[in-house]
Write a structure and sequence with these properties.
This protein is mainly β. The protein has seven domains: 4-140, Sandwich (Immunoglobulin-like), CATH 2.60.40; 152-225, Immunoglobulin-like (Sandwich), CATH 2.60.40; 232-320, Immunoglobulin-like (Sandwich); 332-402, Immunoglobulin-like, CATH 2.60.40.2700; 416-500, Immunoglobulin-like; 504-590, Immunoglobulin-like (Sandwich); 592-675, Sandwich (Immunoglobulin-like), CATH 2.60.40.10. It is built from one helix and 65 strands. The strands form 20 sheets. Strands 2, 4, 6, 7 and 8 form a five-stranded antiparallel sheet that branches. Strands 39, 40, 42, 44 and 45 form a five-stranded antiparallel sheet that branches. Strands 49, 50, 52, 54 and 55 form a five-stranded antiparallel sheet that branches. Residues 1-18 and 58-62 have low confidence and may be disordered.
């Protein structure tokens, strides 16, 4: 790890000198006051360099001297050395060379040997320009306190024996301490040069610490490690088959422990394996599946030993599997071989007490998809075909070869029983009745025939039937026939019921038009049953008006101020008649048409004038009045007027008005003036 000497700016006075400075410090030389150091001694480096702008202030960060140049790492109680800049040693001479001194102390437990040049210091100026310079090597040694860098551990690295520790340290008194490795640390296990490693320390590491103390009180500590301890080799024993391994015949292997074992085995289990599947039975017995004959079979021992022991060899035994059979008798089929019936399969007999069975039903020797249960329901596709079953047995979830195929059976069509029929709805003309089947065989096709007096009604082949006038008073029923592939047909006829007279729902009727004397009004109908015949009867104050039986009616003068309504009666074959009376309306006074009047004749004394009328209401009575210069001429109320001498040089006109029973009298209409000469 490289560390350095860091020079920091002293103040603003140096800033101008640093402008444009990109040259790092130049090393002039490094010297060490001594090449060989004792543990605990202090060494001094003198470092000389040249820089463009030397600064009289400095701060040392830190540095590390590396491990000695051995081929193995050496661990001390702390960092090997800790260096410090000697206060006041920084100075610059006239020739521009700056120097300072760096002192370090060799740790008391530092190992002896040569230390290399891999450690360096970094010289850096205020602009960040820097160089890394290596330090001079040195050697740590102490002739007054000679000692090996590591102690020696004698003995094979195996548990169950003692280990001895030693170290060369002339003139010193040496104390030994042992520690044993744990999961993530070491724990003390003994003092002295020797220690016994019990089997429980198998796979662990031992640490030996040697502490040497000389008469002058100087003490050094050295350590070494045993490495991971090996276990004790033992012969476990042998395995043997109780009989020749044979397909279909239970066999097992027996373990014979070595009587000289220094312990009782905590756990062991015999496992048998060969090139085909094997089935584990109770009490350690195995059964081989068919197809294993002629193949090798091997028994091995799985075990757990006390800590610190391992087997010199794995107990096992091998043989060749002899031929045999698992299957003893074929499966059997029971049940009625007809469509819709359920067949059952007996698995037959097997060796080795199977844990269970699976089944495969076959049609003409071909497996039937998804039919793998011990029961099978015969379907229409099986009629006239050969149905067989094959059984697969398994032990410990390992499937063996299938059994022989059972004897075949040939299914016949099934018999389906007729279900029930109820008919919902009202048996009356105009109503719809519906056949509701229940209890018929699943997925069968149902056809319908509606019957009138036991005979088929043409076209009535749907589940529902609308009763017509033809059915009135007749008995109606429905016949259902069920057909399904693989089954014989089944039929049933429902109970019959007489069709009653239908009931028509009355529609609506309203009077349209202005209800007044002389104005035609109309009965507007809607919602009456299709095909029905409508009859009309107009009513005055709720009583029938003689002869008023048409869809329209013109109120007369006798209807004025009376309430008029219309009653509709609908008739239809097979139905009861239905009636509906409109809301009534009061007949208002009639309004006559006001016509025109003109004078015919020449305006000359002695001539006869005639009042000509047009456009007045039919049947109205007209009243005339002749005028002279706009004033009434006495006794001149006819439609004609003869001009006299009195009329000369006057203006003659005539006015007329109409009246009629039940109508409001019109106002007068006056002709144009006729000048008389």
């Amino acid at each position: 790890m490289a560390t350095g000497l860091l020079f920091l700016p002293a103040g603003a006075s140096s800033a101008s000198n640093l402008e444009g400075d990109d040259t790092p410090p130049e090393l002039v030389g490094i010297t060490l006051d001594k090449d060989v150091l004792k543990t605990g001694e202090i060494g001094t480096y003198t470092i000389r360099f040249r820089d463009e702008n030397p600064i009289p202030d400095q701060r040392y960060v830190r540095w590390l001297v590396p491990f000695p140049s051995f081929d193995w790492p050496y661990i001390t109680t702390e960092e090997l050395h800790d260096g410090q800049v000697v206060p006041g040693s920084l100075s610059t001479k006239d020739d521009g060379v700056t120097s300072f001194q760096l002192q370090f102390r060799v740790l008391d437990d530092a190992p002896y040997g040569a230390y290399d040049r891999n450690t360096s210091v970094i010289l850096e100026d205020a602009k960040g320009n820097h160089i890394s310079v290596g330090l001079e090597p040195f050697t740590v040694d102490d002739p007054e306190h000679p000692i090996d860098n590591v102690p020696t551990i004698s003995g094979e690295r195996t548990v169950g024996q003692s280990f001895a520790g030693s170290i060369e340290a002339p003139g010193a008194e040496v104390m030994f301490a042992w520690r044993r490795q744990t999961f993530n640390d070491f724990v003390d296990v003994g003092q002295g040069a020797e220690i016994f490693a019990p089997p429980a320390w198998y796979g662990l590491n031992l640490e030996l610490t040697a502490t040497a103390t000389w008469p002058d009180g100087h003490t050094l500590v050295r350590r070494d490690y045993s490495g991971y301890l090996q276990g004790i080799e033992v012969d476990l024993g042998t395995l043997a088959f109780d009989s020749q391994p044979t397909v279909g015949t239970p066999f097992k292997a027996t373990f014979i422990p070595n009587p000289e074992l220094p312990f009782t085995m905590p756990w062991s289990e015999i496992r048998i394996a060969y090139s085909s599947e094997q089935l584990r039975l109770a009490d350690g017995y195995y059964v081989a599946l068919p197809g294993s004959e002629g193949k090798p079979v091997r028994a091995s021992l799985s075990y757990r030993l006390p800590v610190g022991y391992f087997a010199s060899s794995e107990p096992e035994i091998a043989s060749i599997m002899a031929p045999g059979s698992m299957h003893r008798s074929p499966p059997l089929i029971s049940g009625t071989a007809a469509v819709g019936k359920t067949l059952s399969a007996n698995p037959g007999t097997w060796s080795g007490n199977p844990d269970g069975h699976t089944y495969q039903w076959l049609r003409n020797g071909t497996p039937i998809d998804m039919e793998v249960l011990p029961r099978y329901q015969v379907v229409s596709a099986d009629v006239g075909k050969s149905i067989t079953v094959q059984v697969f047995s398994y032990w410990n979830h390992l499937v063996a070869m299938p059994s022989a195929v059972s004897a075949k059976i040939t299914p016949v069509p099934g018999s389906q029983s007729a279900g029930q029929i109820t008919v919902g709805g009202t048996f009356a003309v105009g109503k719809t009745v519906t056949a509701k089947p229940s209890g018929w065989i699943s997925d069968s096709k149902l056809t319908y025939r509606w019957l009138r007096e036991g005979k088929a009604i043409t076209g009535a082949t749907k589940p529902s039937y609308a009763l017509s006038a033809t059915d009135h008073g007749k008995k109606v029923s429905v016949a259902i026939t069920a057909t399904k592939t693989g089954y014989h047909p089944a039929s049933r006829t429902s109970a019959s019921a007489s069709v009653a007279t239908g009931t028509m729902a009355p529609g609506k009727v309203a009077i349209t038009g202005t209800t007044r004397v002389g104005n035609k009004v109309t009965a507007k109908t809607s919602g009456w049953s299709t095909g029905s015949t409508l009859k009309y009867q107009w009513l005055r104050e709720g009583k029938a008006i003689t002869g008023a039986t048409k869809p329209t009616y013109t109120p007369s003068s006798g209807d004025r101020t009376k309430r008029v309504s219309v009653r509709i009666t609908a008739t239809k074959p097979g139905y009861r008649a239905a009636s509906k009376t409109s809301a009534s309306a009061t007949v208002a006074t009639g309004v006559m048409t006001r016509g025109k009047i003109a004078i015919l004749g020449a305006g000359k004394v002695g001539n006869k004038l005639t009042a000509q009328t047009s456009g007045w209401s039919s049947g109205s009575k007209l009243k005339f009045q002749w005028l002279r210069n706009g004033k009434t001429i006495a006794r001149s109320t006819n439609s004609t007027y003869r001009l006299g001498k009195t009329d000369r040089y006057t203006k003659i006109s005539v006015k007329v008005r109409a009246s009629k029973p039940g109508f409001a009298t019109t106002g007068y209409a006056t002709s144009k003036y006729l000048a008389v000469k």
